[in-house]
Amino acid sequence: MFKIILAEKAGFCFGVKRAMAIAEKTAKFNSNKPTYTFGPLIHNPQAVSYLESMEVRPIHSLNDVKPGKLIVRSHGLPPQIITEAKEKGFEIIDATCPFVRRTQDFAKTLLNENYEVVLIGEADHPEVIGIAGHTNGKAIIIENESDLKKLTGKMRIGIVSQTTQSLENFKNLVMKIRKIGNEVKIYNTICRETQKRQKSALMLAKKADIMFIIGSKNSANTTHLAQLSQQTGKPTYHIEKFSEISPEWLKGKKIIGISAGASTPSYVIKDVITYLKSINNKISGPRGPRLLHKEEVFNG
């Protein structure tokens, strides 16, 4: 028999809940206009499928589609795309996460103050692309230490971060950037909810025998949770749904830890827990849930 522990902070964050609510409201009160999101609203395939069932579908180009309502995804968009959409007759509905919007504003401020804007994040991530767009593409994107050579000769450096970056990576890169520039201005724009999820997952991983991190494979914050868990040396599986779990992984394990990215719907988490409970029931018979160390424990 094993215990199933769900991390104290897991699943939808404020920004994702807000974006989903905006999309659902837009679909509900649609006035016969086609409704789109530019790219997936959030990085979760189940959530995207749900929105498609409400006739809110993602597009990746403004060409060859009938103008309608365009929902700006939670990751935000470069202002150039929004301007183009308006010119083509799209109605803009902004679901940008407020914390992402804050980062965009800080990046723009640094540019106006004549700093070399450094954006710590993943170059191909839509949030990073959107933030860089607010600097007219002038932001220098730093993903890891190998990118620091881009800063040679830069005197005044202003730093912002992708909101879902790992705090450890951010601190490490900031420390090294401070040795490069003569004047360095830093905005820690990592979302507090992201930090809480990372801390919660890390604490759980340290006492669990195995960790399941639930969320899309292209979700940055979910990937960082998995990386943090792996750093503890515990077996860690980044899964999108319960059907990916092999019962063989659970042999000899006493504590099963679960965390989930900020874009993972609650029902997906519940499906994983239900599946694990079914395995536990086969081992020991049904028992009720109880609490342990302020985290929810699900016994089979």
Shape: flat
- Beta-strand level of the residues, as a percent range? 15-25%
The strand order across the widest sheet is 11-10-12-1-14-13
Structural class: alpha/beta
> What is the succession of H and E elements?
EHEHEEHEHEHEEHEHEHEEHEE
> What is the fourth-level CATH superfamily of the largest domain?
4-hydroxy-3-methylbut-2-enyl diphosphate reductase, catalytic domain
Kindly state the percentage of residues in helix. 25-40%
What is the name of the CATH class of the largest domain? Alpha Beta
Tally of domains:
3
Write a compact overview of the structure shown:
This protein has 9 helices and 14 strands. With 300 residues, it is an alpha/beta fold. A 6-stranded mixed β-sheet has the order 11-10-12-1-14-13, with helices on both faces. Strands 3-2-4-5 form a 4-stranded parallel β-sheet, sandwiched between helices. A 4-stranded parallel β-sheet has the order 7-6-8-9, sandwiched between helices.
Structure write-up:
The chain is of the alpha/beta class and 300 residues long. It has helices at 14-28, 45-53, 79-87, 98-112, 126-133, 167-178, 192-207, 220-231, 266-284, and strands spanning 3-6, 35-38, 56-59, 69-72, 91-94, 116-120, 140-142, 156-161, 183-186, 210-214, 236-239, 255-260, 290-292, 295-298. α4 runs parallel beside α5 (126-133) and α7 (192-207) packs parallel to α8. The longest helix is centred in the C-terminal third of the chain and has 19 residues, at 266-284. The termini are close together.
Question: How are the SSEs placed, and which strands pair?
Answer:
Blueprint: E1 3-6, H1 14-28, E2 35-38, H2 45-53, E3 56-59, E4 69-72, H3 79-87, E5 91-94, H4 98-112, E6 116-120, H5 126-133, E7 140-142, E8 156-161, H6 167-178, E9 183-186, H7 192-207, E10 210-214, H8 220-231, E11 236-239, E12 255-260, H9 266-284, E13 290-292, E14 295-298
Parallel strand pairs: 1-12, 2-3, 2-4, 4-5, 6-7, 6-8, 8-9, 10-11, 10-12
Antiparallel strand pairs: 1-14, 13-14
Helix pairs in contact: 4-5, 7-8
